[in-house]
């Protein structure tokens, strides 16, 4: 029996727990400092057992997964050092930054305890165990940042456990991880927040801003609704990388300012064309950060009841949808209902079925 202890059973910890719970040979213990949370984990059935005792959970574990905000990770490592952990115990984390925690783990004293940094590169703007799903990591990348001293045996044990997430495991240097993820995830979160706040200020003087801000604005700013304390920790932890990236961002914006000052239409066209080409080359249908996947758009008459109708059509054929959203503007997406699925096969089946009743765009 492999016992997995999860500290911080929120969106990511809860989703991991759901990937492992009920699998043969695995037992999942959840920990929270708060008794109400422990009760909630048990009631929702995300773990086999839950406790407020860090020591009890840690000492029972073969694998410990620390799923708390980035700013708390080091203090968890320090506390774990005080306990009589099982020999061979693997400690991993899910933090969105890797360099500082990998560095801190070098301080772990026992040579038979192995820390391997981890970052499942899928998530959402939602938080808490209420948003957890066993499908969250399917087909996403899961970065591991082993140290040069990490034994192969420990790495293999962790990889084999994480196969339950159905994510693709990639190994990477922790600093390189922070550079890349800084650019493709942390910077976009900052930009989304800055953009929303800019428009929020205009809206103070004229509420039409908010009223008209649907469609594209909503899409590209979804991640501005992310959990503030989680992102405070990520950005402060990756501060040096972020400051460099923001400097480059300023240069990008400056170049737009210059093009506009000079009415440089050729330059503007070139910027859009270059960006479009690069974006087209992004891996398609790979679940990852800042992407909604397996979506289809259905052009439907705007009347109540249509969502129910579509849900029953899909339900009758046992096609599971993961999300359904009304898009209020038709300017930049073909259709008014966005329906998300968990895999391409479901998109294809749904598209074939719904085409007999509606106009469908995949
Ligand atoms: N949100 C996302 O999409 C992703 C987040 N991550 C990382 O996963 C970790 C957890 O994030 P989420 O699950 O999104 O957050 P969450 O807010 O859903 O869950 C955080 C968990 O940590 C506990 N917690 C919060 N503050 C604490 C504190 N001061 N001391 C002890 N426990 C505390 C909470 O009770 C909760 O169980 C973070 O390190 C984040 O960087 C990684 C991939 C994606
Ligand atoms: O919702 C999205 O698109 C995200 O980008 C979620 C996310 C947030 C933090 C991570 O470290 C990884 C993924």
Automatic annotation (TrEMBL):
Domain ACT: from-to ranges: 295-362
GO molecular function, one term: prephenate dehydrogenase (NAD+) activity
InterPro entries referenced in this protein's UniProt entry, alphabetically: 6-PGluconate_DH-like_C_sf, ACT-like_dom_sf, ACT_dom, NAD(P)-bd_dom_sf, PDH_C, PDH_N, Preph/Arog_dehydrog, Prephen_DH
Top-rank lineage group of the source organism: Bacteria
Enzyme Commission number(s): 1.3.1.12
Pfam families noted in UniProt: ACT, PDH_C, PDH_N
Keywords: Amino-acid biosynthesis, Aromatic amino acid biosynthesis, NAD, Oxidoreductase, Tyrosine biosynthesis
Keyword Hydrolase: no
Pathway annotation from the record: Amino-acid biosynthesis; L-tyrosine biosynthesis; (4-hydroxyphenyl)pyruvate from prephenate (NAD(+) route): step 1/1
Annotated ranges, domain Prephenate/arogenate dehydrogenase: 2-290
Segments traversing the membrane: none
Enzyme class: oxidoreductase
Catalytic activity: prephenate + NAD(+) = 3-(4-hydroxyphenyl)pyruvate + CO2 + NADH
NCBIfam families for this protein: PRK06545.1-5
Family stated for the protein in its record: Belongs to the prephenate/arogenate dehydrogenase family.
This protein's name: Prephenate dehydrogenase
